[in-house]
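Progress narrative, work stream C.
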Amino acid sequence: MYNKQIADVQGSPMDILVFEPDGDGSFPGLVVAQHLPIAHTGLEKDPFTIDVGERLAAAGYACVIPFIFHWWPPEEEMEVKREAFRDDWAVADLAAAWTVLAGLERVDETRTGIIGHCWGGRVAWLGACHNPNYKAAAMLYGGRIKAGLGEGSRPAIELADRIACPMIGIFGNDDQNPSPEDVDDLGDALNKAGVEHELHRYDGAGHGFQDFTNEERYRKEASDDAWEKVFAFLGRQLK
């Protein structure tokens, strides 16, 4: 189960779902960056998002999931939200979410990380570039990292030298956003920046292959293996 908090971000209220493990802390914590399909419906109506929160809590991680599309009315078209997205707003959202996470009574604020799928994979990369408190970052098939979103924003890939924690990346070789060539470029940027990282790629898997709510995209075998790799990585870095 989860509870909901509301954070004020530059005068705009942002919903945050909070999942905590059973038992006594202190627990490591994760900020979870949402995937794009729920930009229109909100956090609580998306089974995949709820599953991620419950999965992480069951593994012993407290986590917070901020609704980073709070800047627009719920009824606004998805395409508008995607095209008007601003990296500076996302950074502010993540900072507010981390403050909520670190303030939880049973969370060890010295053992926090960030994770995200799809659009949230890009946001997780962006968050790792702006918050030195993170000890781990997990980026799952995040696209458009080679672009900057919002006026004056640098391409997120160019900020790799700001990442202060190890990173894991999960990708499908049939994906085109990011494409295998994009993944090569991400790896090169991390190597150049001296960021400890591991990148895993899956044949026969495309974008969103962990989303069990999408029968066309879901690849159970690859998804299960990817979760095992992600939890092994998080365990090494945060536990």
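Work stream C, second folded protein:
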Amino acid sequence: MTDGTDANHAIVATHSTEIAHTAERTLTASQFHELSIVPAAAVWFANIDNPNTRRAYQNDVEDFMAFCRIELLGEFRSVTRAHVIAWRKVLESRDLAAATIRRKLSAVASLFDHLCNENAVSHNPVSGVKRPVADNNEGKTPALSDDQARMLLQAPQGNSLKAKRDRAIIAVYLFHALRRAELV
């Protein structure tokens, strides 16, 4: 799936960029044809903005495909809930964290949702499959206390433009719980 998906992802990305730069122009016949033959799975991957999520989901889907011995995208039509449950049991036997198993199931569920929307499969076999309970209220990253957040906001001293800018950046970072890369 990686070879074809990477190539198709490149086609989608290239043509999307070309179209964005030439918004006043319509698609050429060649561009229209190339976009119309991109497999639904490649479109799904291309629509995931975060590169870390895309990489994790791609690995998760490839893991599922290897487990089910899926070689062609059309074989997704034969996947049943029993396949997904068997895969979940294998994941649990690997002693993976509950959050990792949930992510892997979410990745496959998301792909099947997209394939259902594209009428490439009739149903989502991941629907109804129980997922391990994960600590949803507790993140892995230690949180700042209110006092620590206030101290951080007060760190840029003065009324200079740079200090105001730095306080604004820190405020956006803290109040929206952004990752460093998202803030940049």
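The chain has a mean pLDDT of 81. No further action is required on this item.
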